[in-house]
Design a protein that fits this description.
There is one protein chain. With 199 residues, the chain is an alpha/beta fold. It has helices at residues 3-13, 18-22, 26-39, 53-61, 74-83, 119-129, 145-154, 168-177, and strands at 43-47, 66-71, 88-91, 104-110, 130-141, 181-189, 192-198. The chain has a single domain (3-198), classed as Rossmann fold, CATH 3.40.50.150. Helices cover 40% and strands 25% of the residues. Helix 6 links the parallel strand 4 (104-110) and strand 5 (130-141). The model has no long low-confidence stretch (mean pLDDT 93). The structure holds S-adenosylmethionine. Residues 4, 7, 11, 23-24, 48-50, 53-54, 71-73, 76, 93-95, 110-112, 115-116 line the site of S-adenosylmethionine.
């Protein structure tokens, strides 16, 4: 079974347990939502939205923003729809999104991109679905090099579908290669970063 199939199976079975129940890194949402608000986002999609923990937060602090989500796990999609009946949540693969070109002015991905075997495909898809001057925002894991090496090594022995954690610098380079500009990044905690740019 490849990592994408493993992710789908894992999150279908664990959509309501542990961290999946209330969202992973809620303490990062305040900072990531502020970046999107400061950019003036009006129509936003969260990729790998899980059970809509970030979207729920965004809706609380900025109810004027139209919100959408995409997840590969049908169970996560079901829970998101239950939690946010007015949001549009679709089942789909972040590497091949069932979404039209230029449909959003904001796209984010919280603690999900390290599940994707081909993150460059996802970043190119994010570019495709954004309008010109739209913002892309990636929030993911970081840490000392030895910890990231250990995590990346351990993933192949896990059933969670985690694939590879990239450094902030690597993510900046990938965003640039996908056609984004004005790229900035910073650590939000010792174990998480945000990297964002503009189409
Ligand atoms: C660690 S959870 C994070 C969920 C949520 N973003 C949060 O911050 O709580 C990873 C999520 O990514 C989703 N996912 C994994 N691979 C995916 C893919 N190829 N396309 C879309 N979603 C995917 C999983 O189903 C899961 O909901």
């Amino acid at each position: 079974m490849d990592d994408k199939a493993k992710s789908r199976q894992y999150f279908n079975h664990h959509s309501s347990t542990g961290l999946n129940k209330n969202g992973y890194w809620n303490h990062d949402y305040k900072a990531t939502a502020k970046i999107l608000q400061d950019h003036g986002v009006t129509n936003h999609i969260d990729i790998g939205c899980g059970n809509a923990a970030f979207l729920s937060y965004l809706h609380t602090v900025a109810p004027e923003i139209a919100i959408h989500g995409l997840d590969y796990s049908l169970e996560m999609v079901r829970r998101s729809r239950e939690r946010l009946p007015n949001a549009e949540i679709v089942e789909g693969d972040a590497e091949n999104m069932p979404l039209p070109d230029r449909s959003f002015d904001g796209v984010s991905c919280h603690m999900s991109i390290h599940h994707y075997p081909h993150p460059e495909k996802t970043l190119s898809e994010m570019n495709r679905i954004l309008v010109k001057d739209g913002i892309v925002l990636i929030n993911d894991l970081t840490g000392p090099d030895w910890l990231i090496c250990l995590l990346n090594w351990s993933f192949k022995y896990m059933n969670t579908g985690d694939h590879e954690v990239y450094s902030r610098k690597e993510m900046e380079i990938m965003l640039r290669s996908a056609g984004f500009r004005d790229i900035r990044s910073r650590n939000l905690t010792p174990f998480s970063y945000v990297c964002f740019g503009v189409k």
